[in-house]
Amino acid sequence: MTKYTGKTATSGIAIGKAYNFKISQNYVRRHHIDDTDAEILRLEEAIISVKNTLKETYIKASSETDKNNASIFEVYQLILDDADIKDSIIEIIVKRHVNAEFAVTVVYRKVVKKIKNSKDSYQLERIDDVKDVYKQIISSLNKNEVAKSELSSLANNITPGDSVIIFADELTPSEIINIDKSNVTGFVISKGSLNSHATIILKSMGFPVIIGVKYQDSMENKFCIVDADTGELIVGPDNDFISQYEKMQNKIELENKEFLKVINKETLTKDGKRIYLYANVVDDNDLSKINDYNADGVGLFRSEFLYLKNENYPSEDELFIAFKKAAETLRNKRLIIRTLDIGPDKIPEYFIKDKNINYEESMRGVEFCLNNIDLFKTELRAIIRASAYGNVAIMYPMVNTSGTFIQIKEIVNQVVSELNNENITIGSFIQGAMIETKEAVKNSDAISKEADFISIGSNDLSDDLFNPNHDRNNTSFFTKDNYSELLDNIKIIIDNGHKNNIKVEICGELASNINFTEQLLKMDIDGLSVVPLEVLRVREKILGI
Ligand code: PEP
Ligand code: MG
């Protein structure tokens, strides 16, 4: 048993086998497929192409080696012709509406497991052949772009039913969204930080995460415990140790149940100040938690994830459906939709490939939208249409000056009149600015004169204040002194907002950290938007202040 100490990024305990994401850079991603017929056709073409290659290989092998050796390629063809296997793949594509690569991988894992469990020595000898054939199908589906090691690492490490801990050097938000997480219990990320988008998303999904520990070959396939509360990774624990941790997991579950006692309480301080307690969401799963935990609504809907999880631009209607669903699910609770917030760590590939997109790494938040007006207008139309179905607010990321806010409002007015001219029903909505840079803090009085509310992005604000490289994956710069400087800046923003009679909330990770709740309340913050799973813990804290 070996212990490694990293940094705690979220909370909780995970137990599972180590899986190195690095080996499988081209991890088979799961995609939703609408046109399953086209997908089956793609599968069939891939199989035919592999068969043709095998025929050529057989001919080549026969001339270069003896017939016995070459006959292996005939065996490969037999495996490819196995109708049961092909039918199972097709069934998965049709029933689960998934891409062929994913369906092939699922069936492949099952076949390999079945062979491993069989005592049939002939079959056991064939296991590598089966692996090879499937690698070739995947490779052909992916136009040979898949790393050769990928499937074998998947097959060796993840057998159905196994719990897995993913180790990665770095993870991007879109990778997290697209990884099949059904067997995954926790994450160990070597280059990460508390404020990195990857950590934020994993936290909102409830995964225990440790940062700062690097994967080593000796960990391969070993059982691991991720103790995200202490930042410890334990590799190869014995059974006693595992059962100790299982008991701790049960205790955490019981503690979480304890918080349920505040579920129906109004979020008031002891002297009666009503604090608005919202949650941050990235997808549909998070939405149901708002009602489950009786939060006041969504304080930050990170809409860029609707773009990141797609392989092409979502249409206005797709966006509208997502926003409408959110508004309706919240049953008139406040839904603050943040418009597309693009940054170097969260930009879809199809944006970069698109020659019509105006993008430079330095463009952040709403600046990107103002440089890509059509894209911006499409999203605004979708949000404004959804405002007819609930209590919708629009929030703009990284607003640095009041001039920018005025410019945005003009565009919004144009969109409203276009929708009115088209006789499309819209509701009422308010508009807020995210303050998350030093420049914005300086201009917070002027911005507050234009905006209906302010929300403080403490993640980017800390980054802008203390991190010269603006690399959110690195928080080694963050010290205790930094916290007090960050809080001083937050105080300036709150005072400027209140001077102009608007509410000031905070939606960065600081809002979820109960060590700062009291200070934020003393500074007169009006609302906190936190990770959904932290709503009850933060409410309990507020009730005691
Ligand atoms: C922030 O910067 O604090 C914030 C909430 O936005 P994001 O983390 O999505 O950049
Ligand atoms: Mg931000």
Mind explaining what this structure looks like?
The protein is of the alpha/beta class and 545 residues long. Helices cover 49% and strands 14% of the residues. It has 24 helices and 16 strands. Residues 200, 300, 302, 341, 436, 457-460, 507-508 line the site of phosphoenolpyruvate (PEP).
Spell out the blueprint of helices and strands.
Layout (H helix, E strand, L loop, with lengths): L1 E4 L1 E2 L4 E8 L15 H29 L2 H4 L1 H9 L2 H14 L3 H18 L3 H5 L1 H15 L6 H10 L6 E5 L4 H6 L5 E6 L7 H8 L4 E3 L11 E5 L4 E4 L3 H21 L16 E6 L2 H9 L4 E6 L1 H5 L7 H14 L4 E5 L10 H5 L12 H5 L2 H14 L4 E6 L5 H20 L8 E6 L2 H5 L1 H7 L2 E4 L1 H9 L13 H20 L3 E4 L10 H6 L4 E4 L4 H9 L2
Parallel strand pairs: 3-4, 4-5, 5-6, 9-10, 9-16, 10-11, 11-12, 12-13, 13-14, 14-15, 15-16
Antiparallel strand pairs: 1-8, 2-6, 3-7, 7-8
Helix pairs in contact: 1-3, 1-7, 3-7, 4-5, 5-7, 7-8, 14-17, 17-18, 18-20, 20-22, 21-22
The protein binds phosphoenolpyruvate (PEP) and magnesium ion.
The site of phosphoenolpyruvate has 11 residues, from strand 10 and helix 21.
Q: In percent terms, what proportion of residues is strand?
A: 5-15%
| Oligomer kind | single chain
Bound molecules: phosphoenolpyruvate, magnesium ion
Helix content: 40-55%
Task: Please name the defining characteristics of this protein.
545 residues; alpha/beta; eight-stranded mixed sheet; eight-stranded parallel β-barrel; 24 helices; 16 strands; globular; binds phosphoenolpyruvate; binds magnesium ion
